[in-house]
Design brief:
The structure is a single chain. With 279 residues, the chain is of the alpha+beta class. The chain has seven helices and 16 strands. Strand 2, helix 1 and strand 3 form a beta-alpha-beta unit. It is globular and about 60 Å long. Belongs to the TfdA dioxygenase family. It holds the Pfam family TauD. Its EC number is 1.14.11.17. It comes from Pantoea osteomyelitidis.
Length: 279
């Protein structure tokens, strides 16, 4: 039985397509090792035509580590670890900004796995950007400036109160989530715990300020970094087909879910693997 995966890079900095693998079946150690090394190298992997249930997706994600249960998003029936991102006319998209998932906790996710379950007729691409490529493109004096700086990441920046007032129960759930997730601090430059590569670790979705700087300095620097990180040179763009899957290294990437299809419907299932404390 041939276990060799075919891995085709989609660009010099980020993104690869993987073929010759069925993620609905339990992976052998050899298959998982190849997948893992490809993820460390390419930062985001794409696979076409993966017929996978929420239970199988949870099983796959658990190979990478312990799973996160999201405090706000709904989840698949009986599978709390799989969140359902169901965008439609009565539920506008909220991922159409550049963000790294769940950086508002002390140990932000290491890996995320997204499965396309229902897609609009056209549109709805997702873009990923490499924090490693963005960091490497900076001048040495600018890298020196960023060394040792820390940024605050706040749940409320992306999950604003007014969005969660449709019912009393929803509003209570939001209040509990806020109480449970006070703002946290992470380094502006993050060292990858496996590869040792350095990456920018601030994102427009959750980063509010740089602690060591004045408010104006912080705003100016974050404004530059948010723009810099999202240059097309550091990106890969994926045009979804039904049953596609994406696996990404959340420690060193950001992504943007293009909302051009709205108000058509789009349903995605996500599993999120807990990571370690950024350093």
């Amino acid at each position: 039985m041939n276990e060799r995966l075919t891995i085709t890079a989609l660009g010099p900095h980020i993104g690869a397509q993987v073929t010759n693998l069925d993620l609905a079946k339990p992976l052998s150690d050899g298959q998982f090792e190849q997948l893992y090394h490809a993820l460390m190298r390419h930062q985001v992997l794409f696979l076409r035509d993966q017929q996978i249930t929420p239970q199988q997706q949870r099983l796959l994600a658990a190979r990478f580590g312990d799973l996160h249960i999201h405090p706000v998003y709904p989840h698949a029936d009986g599978v709390d670890e799989i969140i359902v991102l169901d965008t439609h006319q009565d539920n506008p998209p909220d991922n159409d900004n550049w963000h790294t998932d769940v950086t508002f906790i002390e140990t932000p996710p290491a890996v995320a796995i997204l499965a396309a379950k229902r897609l609009p007729e056209s549109g709805g691409d997702t873009l990923w950007a490499s924090g490693i490529a963005a960091y490497n493109a900076l001048s040495e004096p600018f890298k020196s400036l960023l060394q040792g700086l820390h940024a605050e990441h706040d749940f409320k920046k992306s999950f604003q109160e007014y969005k969660y007032r449709k019912t009393e129960e929803e509003h209570q759930r939001w209040q509990q989530a806020v109480a449970k997730h006070p703002p946290v601090q992470h380094p502006v430059i993050r060292t990858h715990p496996v590869s040792g590569r350095q990456a920018l670790f601030v994102n427009e979705g959750f980063t509010t300020r740089i602690l060591e700087l004045s408010e104006k300095e912080s705003d100016a620097l974050l404004g530059f970094l948010f723009t810099h990180i999202t240059k097309p040179e550091f990106q890969v763009r994926w045009r979804w087909q039904e049953n596609d899957m994406a696996i990404w290294d959340n420690r060193v990437t950001q992504h943007y879910a293009n909302a051009d299809y709205y108000p058509a419907r789009r349903v995605m299932h996500r599993a999120t693997v807990l990571g370690d404390r950024p350093f």
